[in-house]
Specification:
Blueprint: H1 2-83, H2 93-119, E1 124-126, E2 128-131, H3 132-149, E3 153-159, E4 167-170, H4 172-188, E5 196-205, E6 208-215, H5 250-260, E7 264-270, E8 274-282, E9 292-294
Parallel strand pairs: 3-5
Antiparallel strand pairs: 1-9, 2-4, 5-6, 6-8, 7-8
GO molecular function, one term: phosphorelay sensor kinase activity
Enzyme class: transferase
Membrane topology: Multi-pass membrane protein
């Protein structure tokens, strides 16, 4: 009886061990399946993102071809008419139109070059020293020139006053890009006859400034506002609903430069009433601030 009892216990022990081993194997299989499922989800997500990027690139190439091809066709037609003797080179409305298209292509080439630098991770801000009053005069000069040359009205207002000898450090070349892009957009979306563009300066503190570029143009659609600083996003032209011209790089570049100076940029707009772009940023006033900053990784 004793041997029989031992034999039964042994059998039970073997069965228990076998059952444990099966459960352990199943647990390992479940863990492995879970890992495979997680990896599959990650791969699926990566493939989806890659497909979206490829679709953006395809759309962008088609858009770029259109943006380049259309003005080139007009310029070619104008030059052909001049060559044939059909019109005088300078005494015809096409002369001004062709000049505008050349300027547009030049601007597009500049934006594409800037984008290339950004994507290669080579873009830097290089801080330089300048008296704050000289800096503001610099902005006022090229701002009034750009706007008045376009036939619009330009107003300049300053609220508060900085110290006369206050020196700031910033990348003035990059900041010129910021205001040129903002003024260019304001000109582009305001009417030549009654367009009004204003530049406001608010001294919130000795070393903190708020800058506003405001226009009375067509405004930005509410659904477009969250995306205006996104690369390649063009949105619509006010209440017309038509797709805006350009390749959607200007404001993306503007935001990256402002962020590189530890600043922020926001936009307020109402369709049919105009838009305001607001920049707030600290002013670096110590020589220790001199140097370079990689602004690609700041976003």
């Amino acid at each position: 009886m004793k041997n029989e009892s031992i034999s039964k216990n042994d059998i039970q022990s073997v069965n228990d061990t076998k059952g444990f081993q099966e459960r352990f194997n199943q647990l390992e299989l479940d863990i492995e399946n879970k890992k495979l499922l997680e990896e599959n989800i990650k791969l699926t997500s990566m493939v989806k993102k890659l497909q979206q990027k490829l679709e953006v690139q395809r759309t962008y190439r088609a858009m770029l071809a259109h943006e380049i091809g259309t003005p080139l066709t007009l310029i070619q037609g104008y030059l052909q008419m001049v060559k044939n003797g059909d019109i005088h080179p300078t005494n015809h409305p096409y002369h001004e139109l062709a000049f505008e298209k050349v300027a547009m292509l030049s601007r597009l080439a500049g934006e594409l070059q800037e984008l290339s630098v950004i994507e290669k991770q080579e873009a830097m801000v290089r801080l330089e020293r300048m008296n704050v009053s000289d800096w503001l005069k610099r902005i006022e000069r090229f701002g009034s020139f750009m706007v008045e040359q376009s036939g619009r009205t330009f107003y300049w207002k300053a609220f508060g006053r900085p110290q006369n000898d206050f020196v700031v450090f910033m990348d003035f070349f990059r900041m010129d890009q910021v205001f040129q892009n903002l003024l260019f957009n304001a000109i582009k979306f305001t009417d030549e006859d009654d367009g009004c563009i204003e530049f406001h300066i608010y001294w919130k503190a000795p070393n903190h400034i708020k800058l506003v570029v405001q226009d009375n143009g067509v405004g930005i659609a509410k659904e477009d506002l969250p995306y205006v600083f996104k690369r390649y996003y063009r949105g619509t032209e006010g209440s017309s609903g038509s797709t805006a011209h350009g390749v959607g790089l200007g404001l993306a570049i503007v935001e990256e430069i402002v962020l590189a100076h530890d600043g922020t940029i926001t936009v307020h707009s109402h369709e049919g009433k105009g838009s305001s772009f607001i920049i707030e940023m600290p002013l670096k006033d110590q020589s220790a601030s001199l140097g370079t900053t990689d602004y690609i990784n700041r976003k």
